[in-house]
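Write out this protein's structure.
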Amino acid sequence: MAKRSCAKPGTSGLREVVVAPGIRDEAVDVTFLSKLKRLLKDRVVVLGVGNRCRRDDGAGSLLAEQLDGQTGVQAIDAGAVPENYLEKVARSHPGTVLILDAVDFGGTPGDLRILEPELISPSGVSTHGLSLQFTADFLKARTQARLVVLAIQPADIGMGTELSEEVSRAVEQLKDALLSAFHKHLSELQGA
């Protein structure tokens, strides 16, 4: 199993905001979801990042594709080049940009963490570390949006197109959880 090494959370400029206990046989943790919902502000844009030819690395990209058109939240599959989609995101005038990505933070495969992207070090806990740093810096300056990385712990980022069982299960459960969170968020916006 190919697994990227990285610094532990709290080092290399990464600040952990929330930790979910993992998505294995249980639904997404309620505390995790409530904290995620509190981070959503105004118009939400989802930016999925990942290389689908590197197994679990493609989780964020795949999840964004699955979310696209499912709610009033705009979801963009940026693949391994999020910097190519920055103007599209900026033109949406988001209040929140939720970046979905596989990040090796030393957790159990399928675990989730909510991270602040502007603190991700280019030395890399993500296979897109430099791209995410640039993406975060650009979007923060251009949109003033709240930026959040929803990180999924990969099991295998070797060559191949299939997600590992753990990450595949996490993606399915996270998709359902995000759809629920987005529906609630949009209802609250319309009621305001």
